[in-house]
Design goal:
Layout lengths: L20 H11 L12 H10 L3 H20 L8 H21 L2 H11 L4 H5 L2 E3 L1 H7 L10 E3 L9 H7 L3 H16 L8
Helix pairs in contact: 1-2, 2-3, 2-4, 3-4, 3-5, 4-5, 4-8
């Protein structure tokens, strides 16, 4: 921008239309040699698009790596015997947030991995219907059975709209179709997370 024949080269002030102050400040803190703030889960979703726009190759690589690791940890986190329905919704929401950002940045490999991760979560996770059966979970205390055996589907009047549901609804139609198709394949092989 400043080395080539752009308008900004001659201006004393560079206008950053469409940028959020906090996001761009975070970008500069990561970029500045004296600070070099780490790219992490807390800032990757705000930095990825800026890194793409300004073609900062090392940031793009770091953002992809953080997103990739975050996806893997979100799916891995579902394997704990103490995973609750809220935990499952949080993990699914993380995967959906990453999917949205990967689509926006056109990260094909991250998009494919996010789709594979998201489709592993059952419908109850997205719809808000998945609940922990407190009566059954109390009886299972001290036994070696996992908490996942305690999940039930909530009645219509008990359903609260989930962040996952909104994130899913905001996806492009072709991605929703791909997710649902892959989810059906997983469901047939009984490899879903959060299916009672």
């Amino acid at each position: 921008m400043f080395d080539h024949n752009f308008i900004e080269k001659k201006e004393r002030e560079v206008k950053l239309a469409g940028k959020k102050y906090d996001d761009f400040k975070e970008f500069l803190l990561c970029l500045h040699p004296a600070v070099q703030k780490e790219i992490s889960r807390s800032n990757v979703l705000s930095l990825a698009l800026i890194a793409e726009e300004y073609q900062v190759a090392i940031f793009i690589t770091r953002c992809k790596n953080v997103m990739w690791d975050w996806l893997r940890m979100s799916v891995k986190g579902t394997n704990s015997e103490y995973t609750t329905a809220n935990d499952l919704r949080k993990y699914a929401a993380n995967c959906l947030l990453i999917l949205h950002k990967a689509l926006e940045c056109r990260y094909a490999e991250i998009t494919d991995e996010a789709i594979s991760s998201v489709c592993k979560f059952g419908y109850g996770v997205f719809s808000g219907r998945l609940r922990l059966n407190m009566n059954l979970s109390v009886r299972l205390m001290g036994l070696s059975r996992t908490a996942r055996t305690c999940y039930i589907t909530a009645a219509d009047e008990d359903v609260e709209k989930s962040e996952c549901y909104d994130l899913f609804e905001d996806l492009p139609e072709d991605i929703k179709y791909k997710l649902l198709t892959e989810r059906l394949i997983l469901c047939e092989s009984n490899n879903m997370i959060g299916v009672n």
